[in-house]
Amino acid sequence: MSGVWVFNNGVIRLVENPNQSDGVATQAHGRRYVLVYLPTGEAVSSYSSLEQILRSLGWERYFSGDSDLIQYHKRSSIDLISLPRDFSKFNSVYMYDIVVKNPNSFHVRDFK
Questions:
Q1: CB under 8 Å to 28, separation ≥6 — which residues?
Q2: Using CB atoms within 10 A as the burial measure, which of 3, 5, 30, 94 is most buried?
Q3: Cα dist from 92 to 28, 39, 61, 63, 97, whole Å
Q4: Is 2 exposed, middle or buried, given 0-12, 13-18 or 19+ CB atoms closer than 10 A?
């Protein structure tokens, strides 16, 4: 049994897979987020679209021994972006990691 315990209006309940994505938005603590590529205003909806954008920004695939992760690195820095192989596990933590390492290219927004 895994998930997050949520206390709301005097009732506590277990929410399983609280960060499961519907393809574009991810949910955390009742809020839904989306990673937006700023130059086009496009919401990142898959790893293939994200990989195209990251490659255009100078990121390259980094192949390590961990089969559960997709990783990218830049030759000009020590930064490494690690993402879960399953896009449904891509959540706001990973989104903000991408934003911190590409501050002028990405933004995390509330999904409406």
A1: 18, 19, 91, 92
A2: 94
A3: 7, 20, 21, 23, 8
A4: exposed
